[in-house]
Specification:
Oligomer: single chain
Number of domains: 3
CATH topology of the largest domain: Endonuclease, Chain A
Number of helices: 16
CATH architecture of the largest domain: 2-Layer Sandwich
Number of strands: 16
Strand order of the largest sheet: 3-9-8-7-4-5-6
Low-confidence stretches: none
CATH class of the largest domain: Alpha Beta
Helix content: 40-55%
CATH superfamily of the largest domain: Endonuclease Chain A
Structural class: alpha+beta
Largest sheet: 7 strands, mixed
Length: about 375
């Protein structure tokens, strides 16, 4: 890691880093000399020196009635870090009391900066439990850069048992890896009672969910994908083929979340109309959760009036795209269809595994409760 970045993580500003490194190089110096060398005014320099002295990184000495400033040995940084860690450990019991009783509902946190994402992902190391990873690794490395290597090294050193189903050709060292079909810009980390879903971009977002039951559902879903072969269809025709299989084999009800105008443009409006007419003729109940955005509302809003009957009612609700996740999922009694929202290839995963279907249905029920009419 670059020296300045490491010292910033220690809590120093750029000006303080400049002064500290200058003192390390030049040895003892007067405030005026420091101000001149660092191109700062004297008052500002005195303020920075005071903070460095309060932090224990700079000391002073008097010679000929003049004050000189010295940088402490860099090894003292490790001692300071240790003292800070010990101080936090000493007050942890009191902090835990403040937290109070654990809520019965799932705890959801959102981190919207690289630093926040780093904090979330590091939780997978602190737990020291089996770690399951699903999704992209290459974009993880590209976005987090040196932290990716640091995280990997810490995971390996902690001997954390790791399994990963990866969407690209990279692998993780010291982990069992399998290739998944399709590309994605998300990575899901599953461990202990926690799920972290990271959506990678220039400004990545991490959604951290803490809940025992939800975590167990994700673990079962991962296990099913790890142990079984799934059918994967490609392109717009593949999407239609998957939906045709579902409607052909269903007689009761269907549920979907993550629906959007973007998906409708892939399978086509005319195909969607014929598919809905087939559903009505078979008397199949339909519930859908759609992205809460203007284009999707405009397309899906009128559909309960256009494509419903007394025997085949249709309900539409809306939910924020981030909460819906990076995939559109359709569930029936015998099928679970997952369409991955990817930039390049259009791929859909079809599963007939009962456990997978039940997990997706439970997840749909949870999302339905928080969706808007």
């Amino acid at each position: 890691m670059e020296i300045s970045n490491a010292l910033k993580n220690f809590g120093l500003t750029e000006a303080e880093i400049k002064i500290y490194l200058m003192l390390l190089k030049s040895g003892e110096s007067k405030a005026g000399e420091i101000a001149q060398i660092t191109s700062s005014n004297r008052t500002f320099t005195y303020d920075r020196l005071k903070k460095l002295k309060d932090s224990g990184l700079v000391s002073t000495t008097i010679k000929d009635n003049k004050k000189y400033f010295l940088a402490v040995n860099p090894e003292y940084l490790l001692e300071l870090a240790k003292q800070r860690e010990e101080a936090i450990h000493s007050i942890l019991p009191e902090l835990q009391k403040i937290v109070g009783k654990k809520e019965l509902t799932a705890k959801v946190e959102v981190f919207s900066t690289k630093k926040g994402v780093k904090t979330a992902i590091n939780g997978s190391l602190k737990a020291k439990k089996e770690l399951l990873i699903l999704g992209a690794i290459q974009v993880f490395e590209k976005t987090m850069q040196e932290h990716f290597g640091i995280w990997n090294a810490r995971r390996a050193n902690a001997k954390i048992q790791t399994k990963a189903i990866i969407s690209d050709n990279l692998t993780l060292p010291n982990a069992e890896c399998k290739k998944m079909e399709g590309q994605t810009n998300t990575t899901t980390f599953i461990f202990d009672e926690t799920i972290i879903i990271v959506i990678w971009s220039e400004n990545p977002i991490a959604i951290l969910i803490t809940d025992k039951n939800i975590a167990e559902n994700y673990k079962t879903l991962f296990k099913n994908q790890w142990e079984m072969e799934l059918k994967v269809y490609e392109g717009a025709e593949g999407v239609k083929k998957a939906f045709d299989e579902m409607i052909e084999d269903e007689k009761e009800s269907m549920y979907g979340y993550g629906m959007s105008w973007k998906l409708a443009t892939i399978y086509g409006i005319e195909y969607g109309k014929k598919w809905q007419e087939s559903r009505i003729s078979k008397g199949i109940i339909m519930k859908e959760i759609v992205y809460d955005e203007s284009a999707s509302r405009k397309y899906f809003g009128p559909r309960p009036n256009l494509f419903a009957s007394k025997k085949a009612p249709m309900e539409i609700r809306y939910l924020d795209q981030i909460l819906c996740g990076p995939a559109a999922v359709f569930v029936s009694k015998n099928y679970a269809i997952t369409f991955l929202y990817t930039e390049k290839d259009k791929k859909v995963i079809v599963s007939k595994n009962k456990e997978t279907i039940n997990i997706y249905k439970k997840h749909f029920d949870a999302l339905w409760k928080i969706s808007k009419e």
